[in-house]
Amino acid sequence: MAKNAYVYILRCSDGSFYTGVTSNLLKRITEHNEGRYPDSYTFSIRPVELLYYAKFTDFRIAIEKEKQIKKWSKIKKQALIDGEYAKLPNLSKKTF
Q1: What gap in Å lies between CA 42 and CA 13, rounded to an integer?
Q2: What's the rounded Cα separation, in Å, for the pair 57 and 79?
Q3: In 3D, which of 43, 52, 48 has the Cα closest to residue 8?
Q4: In this structure, how many other beta carbons lie within 10 angstroms of the beta carbon of residue 89?
Q5: Per DSSP, what are the bridge partners of residue 52?
Q6: Which of 57, 62, 63, 83 has its CA at 20 to 30 Å from residue 23's CA atom?
Q7: What is the pLDDT of residues 2-59, one digit of tens each?
Q8: Closest residue by Cα to residue 19 from 58, 77, 94
């Protein structure tokens, strides 16, 4: 039986977003807030708040999605968090 995977977006105390992937969402959010990993991005900007997550049945696909979202602008991530899916394609286009 395949393990579920979750891609998630956190808001950190400094207003930045952090995107990650895990097989145990509640445990991972607790680890972020407890500062379990001193070298992690979120360690010095706690507490964190879960804003978005998506569940996957294939961990490889979840990792691909995490990598994709990490490249997005903060505005595009906010549209995803807000469920404004129709805006996502236009937020991908660069203006020159």
Answers
A1: 9
A2: 24
A3: 52
A4: 9
A5: 9
A6: 83
A7: 689 999 999 999 999 999 999 999 999 999 999 999 999 999 999 999 999 999 999 9
A8: 77
Name the nearest CA neighbour of 16 among 40, 41, 52: 41
* Residue 51 DSSP SS3: strand
Q: Are strands 5-11 and 17-22 parallel, antiparallel or unpaired?
A: antiparallel
pTM of the model: 0.92
The CA–CA distances, whole Å, from 40 to 2, 26, 58, 70 equal 27, 17, 25, 15
CA nearest neighbour of 47 among 58, 34, 60, 66: 34
